[in-house]
Amino acid sequence: YPTWKRTLARRARESQVKRFCRAQTIQRRLEEIEVTFRELEQQGVKLEKLLRDENQSPADQQTQWTNQLLYLVQKKNNLMSEESDLMIAVQELKLEEQQCQIDQKLRSYMNKQETLKTPEDQKAEQEILKQLLEVVNKRNILIQMQEEKRLSEL
């Protein structure tokens, strides 16, 4: 088993472990965001009730509650934006995994000598190459979406 094949296999495993760790981190953060959404929703409901029920309260108190409510809405919007970014990151991880798997298939065909390749092998190699290009294009679209989102936020 040549050294370069072992090196490629080791690098593939390392990148797979990194993707797995990133996926776990993203999943944990999505769960935290969900919990925070619920907490913000409960706080918002309480503030809305206070604003509706306490018409006799001083104007300063109502202004303070309104400001708190607006702050909660802003915080919720920021969390929604972060959640959107994380969902894009999840899609990107899936595409990275697909690309890695396709890469390995393609390498197996490319490592074969041209004289030993059957027409079916050549056709399969072309099909795998086509799949690889599709995945790369999808990843490119995701990156463009992220960039457009960042620019629109600025």
Entry keywords:
single chain; 154 residues; mainly alpha; 3 helices; coiled coil; MICA1 monooxygenase; monooxygenase activity; bMERB_dom; monooxygenase
Description:
- With 154 residues, the chain is mainly alpha-helical.
- It has one domain (3-153).
- The chain contains three helices and no strands.
- The model has no long low-confidence stretch (mean pLDDT 90).
Question: Helices and strands in order, then pairings?
Answer:
Layout: H1 3-53, H2 59-110, H3 119-153
Please state the structural category. mainly alpha
* Euclidean distance between termini CA atoms: 52 Å
**Topology as H/E string?**
HHH
Shape, per Cα inertia axes: elongated
Q: What number is the mean pLDDT?
A: 90
**Low-confidence parts, pLDDT < 50 over ≥5 residues?**
none
Biggest sheet descriptor: none
In DSSP terms, counting alpha (H) and pi (I) runs of 4 or more, how many helices? 3
Overall helicity: over 70%
What's the structural domain tally?
1
Strand residue content: under 5%
Coiled coil: 23-57
Keywords: Coiled coil, Membrane, Monooxygenase, Oxidoreductase
Protein name: MICA1 monooxygenase
Main location: membrane
Short description:
The chain has 154 residues and is mainly α. 90% of the residues lie in helices and 0% in strands. It is elongated, with a radius of gyration of 25 Å.
